[in-house]
Amino acid sequence: MLWPTLVGMSESKRVLLAAPRGYCAGVDRAVVAVEKALELYGPPVYVRKEIVHNKHVVTTLEKRGAIFVDETQEVPEGATVVFSAHGVAPVVHEEAKQLSLKTIDATCPLVTKVHREAVRFAKDDYDILLIGHEGHEEVIGTSGEAPEHITLVDGPDDVANVEVRDPDKVVWLSQTTLSVDETMETVRRLREKFPALQDPPSDDICYATQNRQLAVKQMAADCDLMIVVGSRNSSNSVRLVEVALEHGTKDGHLVDYADEIDPTWLDGVRTVGVTSGASVPEILVRGVLDYLASQGFDDVTAITAAEESLLFALPMELRKDLKAAGMSDKMKHDASSLEDAGQLH
Ligand code: SF4
Questions:
Q1: What integer pLDDT is reported at residue 330 of this predicted model?
Q2: Does residue 289 sit within a domain?
Q3: 110, 111, 231, best to mutate for ligand 1 pocket (most atoms within 8 Å of CB)
Q4: Are residues 129 and 79 in the same domain?
Q5: 27 CA: nearest ligand 1 atom
């Protein structure tokens, strides 16, 4: 896409580009799982909920033959369905079984880890305080593992409403994509109320969420404006805007595409921070950088907070079928992957 260039305006205008940004290992795996399923079984392949919370990813997969549904009951009997990276409650597996669906579970292994923690603490009869956003798919899935034992705590202000059966047997867990700082504040308030509160066995907020927030924190104070590429229903993307504003950026916005940038946001701005949520293909960030360059922001400096190399294997049921068909089960985008096929709208 070509943008009008403002000649002679580039002096002292710069972009700080966060790293890491964009795709995490769980999103990559989920998207490749749908791509491979389409290749192997042929369209349509049904996907329960958005495979990841990104408009561009969903519309691109739709064009290739994926059908996104809200509930398992919308999938025709005997068809193939992929469960999204956010995870599902056990009842959803039951529903799929009743409809004789072929299921591919693309739940991120780091979400599965939280599910297992919930099951284990419920078995030991703990009250589990799940810090997360009400209505988020991941929270619904995790809560479904032990509904009798889990109480949702939706941020620090919700702590006042929390009641437990035995204050000496209580543990907190969390959604994987929260603000680290806000979650710690929620835990601090919970611990004031329940001094015996136990911590999760390991961090529930995942490495990708933490690293993307860390990079934004490192550059926030130097930015007049932060542009976060991501969809409005993407929890980790929304958090990145909040983190930027909390750490000194004057103005911050979430955009799905470069053409959502309002040129007036750039008025008087010298430094623009750019990052993207964990469900965002890099091509969308490139679109934003191209637009900014056309407006004189062509001096781009990377701010690297961490290196990431994690890669998850594809879901086991899919790997088995790929192998049987003599197809590659490697977690690698092929030439037609979203990264290359994405078109800016
Ligand atoms: S954001 Fe974290 S938990 Fe969610 S899919 Fe990515 S790696 Fe997994």
A1: 87
A2: yes
A3: 110
A4: no
A5: 5
Distance from Cα 27 to the centre of ligand 1, integer Å: 6
Decide if 7 is inside a domain: no
Instruction: Verify that 115 and 183 share a domain, yes or no.
Output: yes
CA 94 / ligand 1 centre spacing (Å): 24
**What pLDDT, on the 0 to 100 scale, is given for residue 312?**
97
- Confidence at residue 12, expressed as pLDDT on a 0 to 100 scale: 87
Residues 79-108 pLDDT 10s: 999 999 999 999 999 999 999 999 999 999
- Its domain, for residue 257, covers 14-22+207-304
Query: Using alpha carbons only, what angle is made at residue 132 by residues 218 and 114, rounded to the nearest 5 degrees?
Result: 95
Do the annotations mark residue 223 as ligand-binding? no
> Which residues of the chain are modeled with pLDDT < 50?
1-2, 4-10, 334-337, 339-345
CATH code, 318: 3.40.50.11270
Residue 26 CA to ligand 1 centre (angstroms): 5
What is the rounded (10 degree) CA torsion for 289, 295, 296, 302? -20
Q: What is the CATH number of the domain that holds 142?
A: 3.40.1010.20
- Please choose, from the candidates 37, 67, 9, the residue with its C-alpha nearest in 3D space to the C-alpha of residue 267: 9
Decide if 124 is inside a domain.
Answer: yes
Give me the number of domains the chain comprises. Answer: 3
Mutation pick for ligand 1 pocket among 86, 108, 276 (CB with most ligand atoms within 8 Å): 108
Rounded to 5 degrees, φ, ψ at 40 are -80, -50
Catalytic residue among 35, 50, 95, 138: 138
Judge whether 345 is annotated as a binding position: no
Give pLDDT, residue 106: 98
CA distances from 336 to 108, 231, 311 (A): 23, 23, 20
Say if residue 133 carries a ligand binding annotation.
Answer: no
Tokens coding 165: 């059966």
Query: How many Å lie between the centroid of ligand 1 and the Cα of residue 229?
Result: 16
| Shared domain check, 136 and 116 | yes
Cis before 281 (ω within 30):
no
Identify whether 11 is a catalytic site residue. no
